[in-house]
Design goal:
The chain has 248 residues and is an alpha/beta fold. Helix content is 35%, strand content 8%. The chain has helices spanning 2-17, 53-63, 75-85, 92-101, 106-115, 135-139, 142-152, 196-207; strands at 127-132, 167-172, 184-186, 189-192, 215-216. It has a five-stranded mixed sheet with strand order 2-1-3-4-5, covered by helices on one side. Residues 207-248 are annotated as: Disordered.
């Protein structure tokens, strides 16, 4: 037993001297978003906010869709309504007002507003440009589209707003229009099948205060095959056409 103990000691020392193994060697990176509120002159609880009479009527109609004990389920549509009234962003005052209206703890509303990227925690420009750079769009040239948007708006970087306050540009993940890639969303509208030329034309239209044609910019209708019709090229057969006579 003593011999076994003596043999075990150098083995333990060797194990302790072995180099440490790590699961990952990636360097940590900070998030580009701040999830904890910090009072600012333009965003603090002292700034009053409440729904306009028209929006309050709409909010109460939304709340009525839920049983009284579950009216907190209306938090997302009410935050969206507040963001739209507040020029496109969700301030701490908007969140506190929604919490009071739904009789929720403010922290529960903060959790929702910081989880969903649809809620902007900082002021944005009059036109909110979201350029998709996920894989399908990237394969179709979204990098060029993002570069075109940023350069055409005066050399912006994603996340910045033009000096005149007309445009804010961000880079986003999938917007759900992969078959019409590359694409971008401006405010509530999709602009698809983009090229550098059509992208500039769209931005110029918004700069002039007009709204360009939404959807595909290539001339095709919605998401139809760009190569033309390849299926159902003949009249489809009717019900029972291939059944035995007894069932026709």
């Amino acid at each position: 037993m003593l011999a076994a103990a003596k043999l075990a000691r150098p083995l333990s020392a060797a194990r302790l001297a072995a180099p440490a193994r790590y699961l990952s060697t990636s360097s940590p990176r900070r998030s580009d978003a701040l999830f904890v509120h910090r009072d600012k002159p333009y965003n603090n609880p002292g700034i009053p906010f409440e729904f306009t009479p028209e929006n309050l009527k709409h909010a109460n109609e939304v709340i009525s869709h839920y049983p009284p004990q579950y009216k907190k389920a209306a938090v997302i549509p009410l935050l969206d309504l507040g963001q739209r009234q507040n020029k496109g962003w969700t301030s701490i005052s908007v969140m506190n007002y929604v919490a009071k209206l739904l009789e929720m703890q403010p922290m529960r509303v903060y959790e929702v507003a910081t989880f969903y990227t649809m809620f902007n925690r900082e002021p944005i420009g009059e036109n909110f440009v979201q350029v998709c750079t996920t894989t399908p769009c990237m394969l179709r040239g979204s990098t060029e589209i993002l570069d075109t948007v940023c350069s055409h708006l005066g050399g912006l970087k994603p996340g910045e707003t033009t000096k005149d306050g007309k445009f804010t540009v961000i880079e986003v993940e999938c917007q759900g229009a992969c078959s019409n890639a590359p694409m971008m969303v401006i405010n509530d509208d999709f602009y698809e099948d983009l090229t550098a030329t059509t992208t500039k034309a769209i931005l110029d239209a918004f700069s002039k205060g007009t709204k360009p044609k939404t959807g595909p910019q290539s001339g095709r209708h919605t998401s139809e095959n760009s190569a033309g019709l390849t299926a159902l090229t003949s009249k489809p057969y009717g019900p029972g056409e291939h059944c035995v006579p007894d069932f026709q």
